[in-house]
Amino acid sequence: MKTNANIVRKLNDFDVVQRTKDSMFDATTLLKQWNKSSGMKKEIKHFFENKQTKEFIEVLLNEEKLNTRNSAYLKSRGKNGGTWMHPYLFIKFAMWLNPKFEYHVIKFVYDELIQHRKLSGDFYNKLCSLLGRFKETDFREVGKILNFVVFNEHARDRRNSATPEQQEDLQQLERDACRDIEKGYVRSWDEFKTMMRREWATRHNNVPSVLT
């Protein structure tokens, strides 16, 4: 559910808070819940003092091409203050809390990813079924087109290595395409490609051959 531009999910018995504006997670809220339930008094500063954490942050900055450390984590004050972390760093933080909690974090991420993959597959099948209305549809190109729009590249089984965020993006793209065909906004294979070309152009440069 959404509250004050935040999304609150359940992870085991804990609330996990994510901001919609930048996808960062609230580490402070999670830590307070953990300390209360476990009777411990862990502090976030101890996590950042850990050598593996420091090394991970450097890798995160480089691999994700983040411009500043504030893109990995930031600390704020005030009513909604606390420490907010990049999703990947937040996962590492949650797993640092406790081995049992680590299990639930892994399960949470795995279940979320599997669910996204399943939904993406369901919407892909529905999209192909709807595209079957058009005689000129080239089904060999459908997956390639979707991959280029979402990932800016195509590779066999590319969606299987997508992040949960990318899987969700792919779902939404497929869902929107299905809706537009059902409502009659898209009435041919060429119109479908035109729609995808327009969407691709808002995200990337140099339209790939499958969309020309």
Overall description:
The chain has 212 residues and is mainly alpha-helical. It folds into 2 domains: 2-97, Mlu1-box Binding Protein, DNA-binding Domain (Roll), CATH 3.10.260; 104-211, no CATH class. It is built from 8 helices and 6 strands. The strands form 2 sheets. The chain has a 3-stranded antiparallel β-sheet with strand order 1-2-3. A 3-stranded antiparallel β-sheet has the order 4-6-5. Helix 6 packs across helix 7 (164-182).
Key features of this structure:
2 domains, 3-stranded antiparallel sheet, elongated, HTH_APSES_sf, KilA-N domain-containing protein, Mlu1-box Binding Protein, DNA-binding Domain, 57% helix, KilA_N, 8 helices, single chain, 11% strand, 212 residues, mainly alpha, KilA/APSES_HTH
